[in-house]
Amino acid sequence: MKKLLLLLSLVAGLAFIRPIDTPRPDDSRFTKVVLDNDLNEPMELAIDNQGILYYIERVGTLNRLDPRTGQKKQIAKLAVRATGEDGLLGLALDPNFATNRWLYLYYGDPTPRNGEYANVLARFELTPTGLTNRIEMLRVPLLHEGVSHSAGSLAFDKDGNLFLSTGDNTNPFESDGFGPFDDRPGRLRFDALKSSGNTNDLRGKILRIRPQPDGSYTIPTGNLFPPGTPQTRPEIYVMGCRNPFRIAIDSHTGFLYWGEVGPDAGNDSLRRGPRGHDEVNQARKPGNFGWPLFVGNNKPYHQFDFETKQAGAPFDPARPVNRSRNNTGLTELPPAQSAFIWYPYAESPEFPALGTGGRNAMAGPVYYAQDYPASPRRYPAYFDGKLFFYDWMRGWIFTAALHPNGDLNRIERFLPQMSFNHPVDMAFSPQGELYVLEYGSYWRAKNTDAALVRIEFNEGNRTPIARIGADKTVGAAPLRVQFSARESFDHDAGDSLRYEWFFGGKTVQSRQPNPTFTFTKPGTYLCRVRITDRQGLQAEAQLPVRVGNEPPMVQVLWKGNRSFFAPNSQVDYTVNIADREDRPADPKRVAVALYHLPEGEDVAGLMATGQRTPKGKTLIEQSDCRACHALNQQSVGPSWQAIARRYEPQRTDTKLVASLSNKIIQGGGGIWTKDHMMSAHPQLLGEDAAEMVRYILSLTEPSPNLPAKGRVSLTQPGGNYVVLARYVDRGGLTGQDLLRLYPTRFNAADAQRLDRVARRNGNGAPSSMNYNEKGSWIAFDKVDLTGLKSLKAGLSSPGLTGALEIRADRPDGPLLGQLAVVPGSNQQVSTALTPMSGPHDLYVVYREESGGINIWKRLELRWLEVGL
C-alpha cells in the first residue's frame, strides 16, 4: 500500500513538470494581424467565452469586436474624469458573463462628493442597446490635482474573486526620484506613506473582493488583514504598491502577477538609497511589497528629513515601520516582499536580457496549453506554464519559465523581430490565441499607430511570403519593365511556389518568377504577383507602374570646385531643369536647399527625403523620448519646438548644451511643470545626449531654402556643405541633384579605397594611414580637380626617403605632383599640382628611394589639404 501511495505521489508530481525542453517554435510561425487601428488611448481588454473582444479607451469608450467578422461596435461612451492619469482604466467580465451579462468598470468619477474626488468600481449590465443597471460597488477617495499613479487594472480569479489595482496617488517629482515620504505639513500629496504604506487606505494596493448578486461585495478569507482588525482595510490583498498598472491571475495556481512602474532616480545614492527600478511581481499569498520604503529586491531607502535634508539609516525590510504623520493605519507593517523580476534604466545586473531605456513594466497572462485542447490555433506546448510580461516603454514582450513551485527559472524574449508599439494589455482567447492592445507612440494622445492586434500561431503549413521588384517603375510609353519575384519565399523547406502575374488587369500574363512586360499606353498600372505553395496557401504583393511620364533631370551648375569649399567664400550657382513633359519647367516646383552637416553625418536620408536627418533626431526616434514629447504639440512634456523657442537666444551656447544633456541623463523636473518629472537616461552616452539637445535647439534655425539661382556664403570652417536641388514634375515624379562639399583640409583616413595601407587608430585623434610597402596607395573617389593648385600633407617618416605621388584615375595614372618624404616626425610638406579639370579618382602612391619599409619603419600620413 505504501509503495502504491508513493507511486501515485510521483505520478502526481510529474503532472506539474513544465515541458521546458520542448523545442522553441520558429518565429516565422507567428503572424501579427491588425483588427482595429482606430483607437483613442486603449487601456484594458477582456474576452468572453465566445471569443468576442471587449476593450476600453481612457476617454470613456467601451468597444466590442467580433474577430470572426471584424465588425466593431461602440457599446457606450461613459462620462468619466479623464484628467491626469485618471479616466476609464479597468475592465473585467463577470465569470458568469454568458448568462448574467455583467461587466465591471473602474474609472474616475467626474462629480466630486462633498468636494472629494474618487475613482469608482461599478457593475453594469450589457444589453443589446448598451449598458444599464449601474451599481457603484466601491469608491477609492483620492487627491485630484498634482498627483500621479492611478493604476486601475481588474481581474477575476478562478474562485470568483475580483482583484483591483490602485496607485499611490502621490506626486513623485520632489523626491529626486527616490522614496516619496515627505510628511511635512501641507505636503500630503508628496507622501506615499499616507497611501501605499498605510494599512487603513485603499490606495497603492491590490484589493481582493467577492462580488455578490445584489452588487455588494464580501471579503474573501485570507486577505492581508482579517475583517475587524483595527486601523486596517479588509479589502487589501497586497500593499506597498506604487503604480501596479496591469495585473493578471494565474488561472491554475491562483498566483497574482503585476507590473510595478517604478521611480525615476537614475543612479544609487549613498545618502538616499537605490536608483529606480521597475518590477514584475508575484504574490502567492497576501503581503506587503515595500513601497515607498523599498524597491526591487527589497533595496532599502534611507530615512530622510525633507526639511533639513539630512539622511538617516536605511529602512529594515524585515521590520518596516510607518511613522508618517499622515498615516492612519498601523505603525508596524508586514515584512516587505522582494520583487519577482526587477530592472533599472541602465542594464540590469540580474536580468541583462531586458536591455536599457525607459521603463513601464506590465504583467500578462500565464499560458496553459491544456486549457485549449480542441483548438488548432492554440499556442504550442513550449509556452506551457510561462508568464508573459511586457514593457510599455521598451516595446518588448518576454516570457518567464517557472519551476513547479512558481520560482523563476529563466526569461526569454518573445518574437524579438516583431515590433510592438507600446503594448498596454494582452489576453489569451478561448481558442488559445494571443490578443494585444497597443497604446501607440504618445502618452495621453489619440495615436494613429494605436491598435488591437492578434498574434497568430500556425503550427502546420505556413503562408508563403510574396515580394515583388522591377528594374523601373516610371517612364514614357512604350515602357519595357523587367519584373522579379525571386525574393519571395516559403518558410516550409521544400515547398515549390507557383507564380501568377497581373499587369494592371485581371488577365494572367505570365507564370514565370521574373517576366518582362511592355506597357504601350500611358497610365498607372497596379501590377501584382500571386504566389501559391503546394498546399494551396497564397500570398500577394503589388507594385504600381506609371507609364507616360519621364522623371525630370536636375543639375546644379556650381561656379566653384564641386568637391571642396573654402571658409568664408561665396559661390554663384544655377539649377537647371530638363523635363520631357513639363515644357517649360514650373519654377514653383523647384526646391533648393543648403545644409551644413557635422562631419560624418550621412546624406542617405537627405537624398531619400529631401531633408537632413541629424544624428540627434535619429537618437530621439530610437529612444523613449517620443512617449512624452512631440515635435509641435504638448504631450506629457513640452514639444520640441517649444523647447527650442525657449532657449533660442542661447542656441549655440556650449554650456547650455552640456546642462541640458546632463538633465536628459540624470532626469529632472520643475522647469515646465511641477506635475511631471523627466525620467533619467543613465544608459545614454554624454555625446549622444548632446546630439539630441543640438537637434532640438536647431529647430529654430533659419530655413535652408534657396532660390533656383543665386549666390551662397559658406561661412563654417569644418563639417560638410550639401546643396540639394529637387524638382517634382506635374506628373508627380521627382528628380534631384546633390552636391556635397568638403573642407579643403581633410583626414587621410577618409580615403574610400586602399592597397597595402592600414588605418591606424589615433589616441583621441583621427586615424592616420600607415603605408606598409613600396607602391602602396590610398584613393579618394570622384574628386573634382578643377581649380586645385596645390596639395599639402602632414606626415611622419621614420628613416624613409622617397615621395608620395599624386596621380589621377589609376595608381600609375597621370602624375599631378609629388610630396617629398624625408626622415622626420610631424612634417608638413607641399607640392604644386598640374592643372586638371573635372571629377577624377585621386591616388596617393608611395615611391621609395631608400630606408626600407618594415614593421618598425612605416610611413604615416595624417591629413591632406588642397589649395584652391
TrEMBL record:
What positions does the domain PKD occupy? 464-547
Q: What SUPFAM superfamilies does the database record attribute to this sequence? A: Cytochrome c, Galactose-binding domain-like, PKD domain, Soluble quinoprotein glucose dehydrogenase
**What is the originating organism of this protein?**
Rudanella paleaurantiibacter
The name under which this protein is listed is Carbohydrate-binding protein
Residue ranges of domain Cytochrome c in the record: 611-700
- Region named Disordered: 210-230
What GO molecular functions are on record for this protein? carbohydrate binding; electron transfer activity; heme binding; metal ion binding
Which of UniProt's keywords are assigned here?
A: Heme, Iron, Metal-binding, Signal
Record has Iron as a keyword: yes
| CDD domains referenced in this protein's UniProt entry, alphabetically | CBM6_xylanase-like (cd04084), PKD (cd00146)
Q: What Pfam families does the record point to?
A: CBM_6, Cytochrom_C, GSDH, PKD_4
Signal sequence annotation: 1-17
